[in-house]
Amino acid sequence: MNVDESKQELFHMVVHIKIDFEVWHHNMLKGRDVMRQISTVQMKIFENEERLINGGSAFFLRLVDRRLRDMYQRRDILIDMMKDLFEALRRHNASTQCMLSRVRMWHDDELIRDHYIALNFSTTQFLEFLEFLASRYEAEYEVKEVVVLNLHRMRNAHDVDILESCWRDCIHAGGEEFQGRFQEFFLATTRRNMMRNKEQPINSRLRSSTSCN
């Protein structure tokens, strides 16, 4: 293991996590909007399916059937959008787990364990934060997976409400504790603190990614 290269990658992991946090937040908000649209379309589908069951004139039933086909198509497009967002979350989660695995491995080396990535932020502190972050992202990812897998299985308004709320309410990667830990991380690893760290390898600014990208 090259100690200097590992220190450089630690530096860029910190930067990468900050970027990932913004991307994760953006995808969650976008998912909320798409889920609202899915909920609206699905409720209209239920309404029109009920009309078919109740019957009516041939013209009326053809009209309802045409509306349903359009709504099914619209819903499927929206569900595909949710699948794309979920895939982005999967990559994000995998990247975080990869970083955690690498930092755990490097932490066995005393030279890296005692290294300070920022002025007052050590590798050990980074490992503790990564363990917290990875566990929260993994748990939230599993919830979102349940949502996406069940979007074609909604049978009533209750199902719709449950799935929409499960995406909207980030009980694992959200809330006061999660936001508070991230705020502490951001404050400890400001650009100024990282650049003032004399232990930081000189060429650490030359790389723009980590091995977990």
UniProtKB/TrEMBL annotation:
Domain of life from the UniProt record: Eukaryota
Protein name: Uncharacterized protein LOC115632961
